[in-house]
């Protein structure tokens, strides 16, 4: 993903400094995260080919030293990156809404640890580009991806996740039947995630991430065009010029 792509002007009044600094920070970090995810996916694709034909001991050594750290990180990234996009959009839309609400604008965005998708939706509503952006982040790290990866992110943080390539976890599973409400125990364990299975899934997630970044750029450009126009009309800027 590219860096320093914004067309926001350099001559800004103090009121637009938060937007400018947030945009620079957020856009760089989002690009870093997606580029890292791409690199990790390429590395797993290489290990997928390397491990073909290894015996169990060799496979355990390779997965322990190389595959596990990369795969654990990259399977957690879609959720993390999506949350960062939501966070960035909420802040930028809130600041840019000065142009939409003018004197009625209030700096009433919740604290950072309370900013979720609902907040981003509320402040992004005035911007036509926000809806395509939202559709893009809904496709990224979706429930379909979660299911296909054994709900890895959630189980990694809250339960016991599947292993990679070799070994079983969670030898006993417990659930309630929907009909009678009876408890059912299952035995046998959760099989490992094969790189041949997860690499294509991650490659598709990378494609979703690229589209999401492009939609984020479109949203930002919609806002910066109006900010640049408003700044050009600002008497302080005109006088300084």
Task: Give an account of the 3D structure.
It contains 9 helices and 2 strands. By secondary structure, the protein is mostly helical. It has one domain (16-240). A two-stranded antiparallel ribbon has the order 1-2.
Number of helices: 9
What's the shape? elongated
Strand order of the largest sheet: 1-2
How much strand content do the residues show? under 5%
Order of helices and strands: HHHHHHHEEHH
User: What structural category arises from helix and sheet content?
Assistant: mainly alpha
Task: Tell me how many strands there are.
Answer: 2
Q: Whole-Å distance between the termini?
A: 35 Å
Overall average pLDDT? 91
Low-confidence stretches: none
Task: Give the assembly state of these chains.
Answer: single chain
Largest sheet: 2 strands, antiparallel
Q: Kindly provide the radius of gyration, computed on alpha-carbon positions and rounded to a whole number of angstroms.
A: 23 Å
What is the helical fraction, as a range of percent? 55-70%
């Amino acid at each position: 993903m590219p860096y320093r792509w914004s067309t926001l002007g350099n001559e800004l009044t103090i009121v637009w400094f938060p937007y400018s600094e947030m945009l620079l920070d957020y856009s760089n970090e989002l690009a870093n995260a997606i580029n890292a995810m791409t690199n990790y996916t390429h590395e797993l694709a290489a290990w997928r080919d390397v491990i073909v034909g290894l015996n169990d001991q060799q496979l355990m050594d390779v997965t322990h030293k190389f595959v596990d750290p990369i795969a654990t990180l990259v399977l957690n990234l879609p959720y993390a990156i999506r949350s960062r996009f939501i966070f960035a959009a909420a802040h930028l839309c809130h600041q840019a809404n000065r142009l939409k609400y003018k004197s009625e604008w209030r700096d009433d965005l919740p604290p950072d640890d309370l900013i979720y998708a609902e907040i981003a939706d509320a402040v992004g509503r005035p911007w036509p580009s926000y809806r395509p952006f939202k559709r893009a982040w809904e496709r990224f790290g979706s429930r379909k991806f979660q299911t296909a990866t054994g709900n890895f992110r959630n189980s990694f943080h809250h339960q016991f996740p599947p292993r990679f390539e070799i070994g079983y976890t969670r030898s006993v599973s417990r659930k309630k039947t929907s009909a009678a409400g009876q408890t059912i125990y299952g035995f046998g364990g959760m099989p490992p995630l094969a790189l041949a299975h997860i690499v294509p899934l991650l490659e598709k997630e990378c494609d979703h991430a690229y589209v999401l970044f492009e939609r984020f750029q479109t949203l930002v450009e919609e806002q910066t065009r109006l900010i640049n126009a408003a700044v050009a009309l600002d008497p302080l800027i005109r006088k300084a010029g």
